[in-house]
Amino acid sequence: MFVTLYTDKSQVTLTYDIGERPQIIYWGKRLRNTPENQLAHLGQRQYARGAAYEDIQPSLSNELGAGIYGSTGLLAHRAGKDWATSLEVTDVRQHSEQSLTINCYDPRAKIEAVYNIEIDIDTHVIVATTRLKNIGNSPLYLDWCTALSMPLDNRFTRLKSYMGRWSDEFRTQDIPNFRGGYIRENKIGRTGHDGVPALLALADGTTECCGDAVGFHLGWSGNNRVRVDRTIDARSFVHMGEYFFPGEIIIDPGQTYQSPPLYAAWSEQGLNGVSQSFHHHVMHSVLDGRIKDKARPVHYNTWEAVYFDITEDKLISLAEAAAEVGAERFVLDDGWFGGRRCQEKGLGDWYVSEEVLPNGLQPLVDKVRSLGMEFGIWFEPEMVNPDSELYRNHPDWILNAPGVEQVPFRYQVALDLTKPEVVEYLFECMSAVIGKYQVDYVKWDMNRDIHHPGSDGHAATHKQTLALYALMRRLRETYPNLEIESCASGGARADYGVLANTDRIWTSDSNDALDRQTIQRGASYFFPLPIMGAHVGPRNCHITGRELTMDFRAGTAIFGHMGIEADLSKESEEDRHILGNAVDLYKQHRELLHSGKFYRLDTVSYLNAVGVVSNTGNEALFSCAMVDGHPDILPVRLQLTGLLPERQFRLRLVWPKNPNSITQPSPLDHNDLLGEGRVFSGEALMNYGIQLPLMFPLTCLIYHLKEEI
Ligand code: GLA
Q1: Closest atom of ligand 1 relative to the 490 alpha carbon
Q2: Which end of the chain is more exposed for a tag (fewer CB within 10 A), N or C?
Q3: Average pLDDT over the chain, rounded to whole?
Q4: What band does 69 get if pLDDT is binned at 50, 70 and 90?
């Protein structure tokens, strides 16, 4: 029997028989003229010499009981027995054309599995989970359970995955065709700097703008494993699931385990098509929708301006300077509480420090509000410095492996959120501040890897991660207007699991605009601009020592959720003026930037070009950063994408306001791009392109296109 889920563009088809293992036989373009049995006939395989007499069929968890060649999606046993699992269909329920549930049962291992598969009607994104129930009467040990064994069509020969480090997140790496397995394991208790649990697969010849591509993302902020296997039986599978420490998941009789959701998107329009599906899905289905229609306010964050050197006067003058350049939300970062005068102390003592703020927070909050800004504040709820009142009072509230030394990491250890009293303490402390000052926004940080995630001796990352989500949810339920940013030493907790409970990610601690060009482009494969924090840092970048112009810093921060994170009194008057202009430009275009379709352009390596085209196609903004010198005497033409070819657009350059081309007249002058602009067809802009002016490297040009009717 067959069951198909479909949207107008995409379809997934499964075969099943009651008492047999189910199987996905097709996922891709919607096939309008093809009865499902044609797919089954076309896919018929045969006996191969030197192999099993019958072709071994994959299933939704590629269980070991089937004798599959490649990697499995399920490792479960009863103290070493009943490991040859085989989940056979008992019931299939199609709830709609886009949603189904498949119930399976393993009569020997006594495991029930419920597979939920949905395909989003608007974004064509598949969301799949697996729930297991222990029907036996002894504990079931679960070592691995993926959301789904996801077949990867054999046209997808190349992979693109993430790597990175602190301050250099979302770097991508290309993996050419391979045999065997490609595996990423993360066991540090947070999503991590070096790899979002996500990857892309490309057909030969696929680029940003054209060709077949697919993307996968696990909605989970704890430990995870991502693997792709190409096996001897000429099949490929993507497996994504939680990484469990030994004994971490023992399902008691009658109890269940639910995998995190797998998100999968497919496109014929290159990697941009995959990203657009994911972006839309994040905005409409992953985020909880409370701030769906709210313009994302310009942030001012205090961290790089003052670090721990806080006084009320200083904060008030930062707020005044921020408001002057147009900031709309003031976020007080680390250092306002307990004995937290440096990294080594005070974490966990969540009360306003009288030492630095003898009048409390009220005067600052009042000032911020009187300047027309929202008020936000930093917490790092899951952590404690051993040098803190909290730790001295409750040394037993931390995650650890008994008798094993903690790995030293930013002078802090992780609290055990699986203990209700710990969560209660955090909720009370945070509530006291959020409630009293009507805090609009919490920057929720998490600044260490957790190497020994033990609670009462048992590995507990799974429970810890769920407890974290629950605490976030409880705060949002209690304070319905509260927004939360997910930060973890920059971008180490960016994933769809945390985004279901938060509103923004802090993309990276590097505010170096040159780094940010790459970081934001990398993040954009899975994360949309409205949730991607992008701040204008100081002229001298604190992380890299690089000195960058305000034009470049501000131009880079416009393509994201814009903010500022610098001591503005140290910026020149001219730079403050330029920043004010950039903030105005962001405000003018944020609706377009945050609602349109996002494109990465295929360009030469010394350019990083991205753009957003409105959903009706009548307006667009394209950013082209010159991230390096060009090898020829002049730079190339920039070919745009995503425009309707038959339409006419007025092209203008809107950033920088005073571009200094090295020689004059430049193409900007020829076409009066700083003034009235000139009208060009979509097809000319896409197929012929815009000759770029001769500029110094580290210039960020932003072109605006408006349909001319
Ligand atoms: C982390 C964050 C920074 C800042 C500091 C404060 O590193 O990523 O943005 O909040 O903590 O300690």
Answers
A1: 8
A2: C
A3: 97
A4: confident
The rounded distance, in Å, linking the Cα atoms of 570 and 567 is 6
The domains of the chain are located at: 2-286, 600-707
CATH number of 2-286: 2.70.98.60
Tokens of 677: 């602009």
Do 600-707 and 2-286 have the same topology in CATH? no
Neighbours of 256 (CB within 10 A): 12
Chain-centre distance for alpha carbon 358: 39
Of 587, 638, 589, the closest CA to residue 614 belongs to 589
Question: Would you state the CATH architecture of domain 600-707?
Answer: Sandwich (2.60)
Residue 108: CB atoms within 10 A of its CB come to 13
This model's pTM is above 0.90: yes
Is the C-beta atom of 334 inside 6 A of ligand 1?
Answer: yes
Q: Span 508-532, mean pLDDT?
A: 98
User: Residues 288-301: pLDDT tens digits?
Assistant: 999 999 999 999 99
Regarding the beta carbon of 157 and ligand 1, being less than 6 Å apart is answered no
Bridge partners of residue 536, in order along the sequence: 564
Let me know if 445 is a catalytic residue.
yes
Residue 464 confidence (pLDDT): 98
Residue 561 pLDDT: 98
Ligand 1 pocket test, candidate residues 307, 378, 382, most atoms within 8 A of CB: 378
The structure tokens listed for 329 are 């939300």
Give the pLDDT confidence of 206-250 residue by residue, as tens digits. Answer: 999 999 999 999 999 999 999 999 989 999 999 999 999 999 999
Among protein residues, the one with the nearest Cα to ligand 1's atom 8 is 489
Residue of 229, 349, 445, 551 marked catalytic: 445
Residue 487 beta carbon below 6 angstroms from any ligand 1 atom: yes
